[in-house]
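seq as requested:
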Amino acid sequence: MNTNIAHHLRPFFHTYLTKQRGLSPHTLKSYRDTFKLFLEYLQSKRRATTPLSVTSLDPKTVLAFLEHLEDARVGRGNSPQTRNQRLAAIQCFFKYLSLHYPDLQRLAERIHNIPHKRTPQKTAEFLDRKEMDALLTQPRTDTGDGIRDLAILIYLYNTGARATEAVQTRLSWFDFSNRLVAITGKGNKQRITPLWPSSVQLLQLYAKQYRRKPKFGGQDVFFIDQRGLPFTRFGIRTLVKKYLRLAAMQCPSLATKKLSAHSLRHTTAVHLLESRVEPNVIKAWLGHASVTSTDHYLNTDLNTKRRILERFGAPLYVASVLEPKTGQSPDQLLNWLKDL
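struct tokens:
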């Protein structure tokens, strides 16, 4: 058996994580960074020039690396949460090794038994209904980019999509006639989410009239920025923070909260909960369902989801934006009527 770490890391990333487990690019980058740090640490602690061996990675070595990560004086000063993420990546690597090399099963079990550090549970910040209304009124709806920005905000709120899922959204995901979107989330798992009628009208208005022509390779990408490129996670976060900052001037309570693009996902969950939706259904709605196919909340049918959406209630502001404006030309009114 070849014990060289490099020999095993390549198939671990290219085959196991990517092809077999289908992890997201974001998770792959996190795992990559973990092993870059881990290998740099191991190199700094050894004098030999021979290749690093997987058999030299015992629990004592892994624990020393984790302590180094948290050490603010000589290490990186990482938080317990980051420490746990790095440990999870290393444990995943040893799980992969144990599947292919039975001789390493015992070592893998010992690495797997390294405990994750307990961390304080953070309270998820969210927007109440008044704050959400204030946020949605910020984009200028007399401009194409304003319509696009409002479409992004309502899409995040209606579906509970992650920022990553929003930037990956494709035109082909939508079934506007049936008011549905099929979101592909973490682990390439797909969930079908219903849309409010006003969400459909707004998203169609953006797609037909205001979506910029994408540059080569992004023809199916739904949200396009000013350069004709797909939005990035950073772009979504910047957009949401911009409108949160503007909304805080109108609704001061927003200034007291630490909010981000992910807060809209929390807001969706809380508003669903306030609508007396069962927690397990909310997990399925947001794509947090267990991979176990027998879990009953994975089988939530679309009619149930539609009833939930009606209880949830679409923001009145979005519907008002889509009403015909006084002073519009007959051609503009005809175009608006065609989009209804």
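The first strand starts at residue 174 and ends at 175.
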